[in-house]
Specification:
- It is a single chain.
- The protein is of the alpha/beta class.
- The chain folds into two domains: 118 residues, Aspartate Aminotransferase, domain 1 (Alpha-Beta Complex); 241 residues, 3-Layer(aba) Sandwich (Aspartate Aminotransferase, domain 2).
- The chain is built from 14 helices and 14 strands.
- The strands form four sheets. A seven-stranded mixed sheet has the order 2-10-9-8-5-3-4, with helices on both faces. It has a three-stranded antiparallel sheet with strand order 11-12-14, with helices on one face. The protein has a two-stranded parallel ribbon with strand order 1-13.
Length: 379
C-alpha cells in the first residue's frame, strides 16, 4: 500500500518542520466552502491570532496567499515596485539573493548589495549603497535561513527610511519564533509563511500589509492577479482568501495559532526559541573543531549554522545525513549553493540545525547528543 514505506523522521532541518500531533490530527477536520459561513469559523481566528503573534501592529492587515513564502516575496515586488522605481535588494545569503532574482525576472530596475556569508547587514555599508543608488524601495531578510543570521530589522528599516526609501522585509523563517518588530520597524510590507517557525505545513504565504503599502500599490501597474495586494486585500478584510485556499491547511492553521496564542503564549514561544539557541551555542563549545558560523550578536533563535573542521567535506556531511537517518532524524547538511561557494574558496562546509516551531529544548538536546557522536566518527 502507498505510504507503507514512508519513514516518520524527526525533522531538524530548516523547513518543512516537525509537526505537533494535534496539528497532524487537525488535518482530518472537515473540509469547507471558502465562501460559505464555515469559512469565518477558521479564518477569523486565524487573522486575529496572526496579528497577536505580530504584536498587533496598527495599520497592518494580514493577507494569506496560496503558495509559499516565495509567492509573497514576489507579490511584494509585483505590487510595490513600479517600472520607474529602483529597488535595492540587500542580501546576507541565498534567500536575500532570491529577492534580487524575483526583482530581475519581473523586469524591475534592480541592484544588489551582498554581504559575506555569515555576516549581518553592516549599517555603514548599507548607508553608502543607499546614497549611491538612491533606491525607491529596499528589500532585505530579517532572518536568513541559509546562514543563520538575524538582522536588526528596526535599525535597518530606520536607516532605509532616513535615506528616502521604503523597506520591505522577508521574515519567512523567524515569524512565530521571535518578535517580528513590525510596529517598531514600520516596513511597507512584512512577508512570511507557514512552514517555518509557525509549525505548520507549507502552503500559505502571509503578508502583513500596511496602509502605506496600499497607497503605493495603487501607483504600480501590472501587479498580476494573485500577486496583487489590492485584489488580495479586498478578501483579507472579510477574512477570506482571493483564491481557493487549502482547506486542510486552514484547519491546521486555526488549531495551531490558537495553541500558540492561548496555550503556549507568544512570549513563552519566543522564550523557548531563545533557550534552544543557547543550547545549540553551548553544544558548539564541546565539539572540537566546530564553530558557530553566523556573526556574533546576530545569531538566529530559529536555527544555528556550524562551521566544520578542515577535514569535513560536503560528501562527508551527506554521509552524516544518512547516518542520522538511521537514528530516526533528518539532518540538514547545509545550503548547497553556499557550501559549493565555500568549497570553491578552499573552505570547509557548514551545516544547519533547525530549532524552530514546536521542537522542544529536551528534543534538541537529545538530537545534538546523537549528532555529536556521529560527527566524532569522522575525526
Amino acid at each position: 500500500m502507498i505510504g507503507d514505506d514512508f519513514v516518520d523522521l524527526k525533522l531538524f532541518i530548516t523547513g518543512p518542520i516537525l509537526l505537533r500531533e494535534e496539528v497532524r490530527r487537525a488535518g482530518l477536520l472537515p473540509e469547507f466552502g471558502h465562501r460559505d459561513s464555515e469559512n469565518p469559523k477558521r479564518f477569523e481566528p486565524i487573522m486575529r491570532n496572526l496579528l497577536a503573534i505580530a504584536g498587533n501592529p496598527k495599520g497592518y492587515t494580514p493577507i494569506i496567499f496560496n503558495g509559499s513564502g516565495t509567492n509573497v516575496l514576489e507579490a511584494s515586488i509585483r505590487s510595490l515596485v513600479s517600472d520607474s522605481d529602483k529597488v535595492l535588494n540587500v542580501s546576507v545569503g541565498a534567500f536575500g539573493d532570491l529577492y534580487h532574482t524575483l526583482a530581475v525576472v519581473n523586469g524591475k530596475n534592480a541592484v544588489q548589495l551582498k554581504f559575506a556569508h555569515g555576516k549581518a547587514i553592516d549599517m555603514q555599508e548599507l548607508e553608502v549603497a543607499l546614497k549611491e543608488h538612491k533606491p525607491d524601495v529596499v528589500t532585505f531578510t530579517h532572518n536568513e535561513t541559509a546562514t543563520g543570521v538575524i538582522n536588526d530589522v528596526v535599525q535597518v528599516c530606520e536607516l532605509i527610511r532616513a535615506n528616502g526609501a521604503l523597506p520591505i522585509v522577508d521574515g519567512v523563517s523567524i515569524f512565530g519564533g521571535a518578535p517580528s518588530m513590525i510596529s517598531e520597524a514600520k516596513p511597507l510590507m512584512y512577508c512570511t509563511s507557514t512552514q517555518k517557525s509557525l509549525g505548520l505545513p507549507a502552503g500559505f504565504g502571509i503578508g502583513f500589509v500596511s496602509e502605506e503599502a496600499m497607497e503605493k500599490a495603487a501607483t504600480v501597474e501590472n501587479r498580476g492577479y494573485t500577486t496583487d495586494i489590492i485584489a488580495q486585500m479586498g478578501k483579507a478584510k472579510i477574512n477570506q482568501t482571493l483564491t481557493t485556499p487549502n482547506g486542510t491547511l486552514a484547519n491546521q492553521m486555526c488549531v495551531q495559532l490558537d495553541y500558540i496564542v492561548n496555550s503556549e503564549t507568544v512570549a513563552g514561544r519566543f522564550k523557548r526559541h531563545e533557550d534552544m539557541r543557547t543550547i545549540a551555542h553551548k553544544w558548539s563549545e564541546i565539539m572540537d573543531g566546530y564553530e558557530l558560523f553566523a556573526q556574533e550578536g546576530f545569531r538566529s533563535p530559529s536555527l544555528t549554522t556550524f562551521k566544520t573542521p578542515s577535514y569535513m567535506t560536503i560528501d562527508k556531511l551527506k554521509e552524516v545525513k544518512e547516518l542520522m537517518r538511521e537514528h530516526g532524524y533528518l539532518f540538514d547538511p547545509g545550503y548547497g549553493k553556499i557550501n559549493k561557494e565555500l568549497a570553491d574558496q578552499g573552505e570547509s562546509p557548514i551545516f544547519r540545525v533547525g530549532h524552530m516551531a514546536d521542537i522542544m529544548p529536551e528534543m534538541l538536546t537529545e538530537y545534538l547528543e546523537v549528532l555529536g557522536e556521529v560527527l566524532n566518527t569522522f575525526n
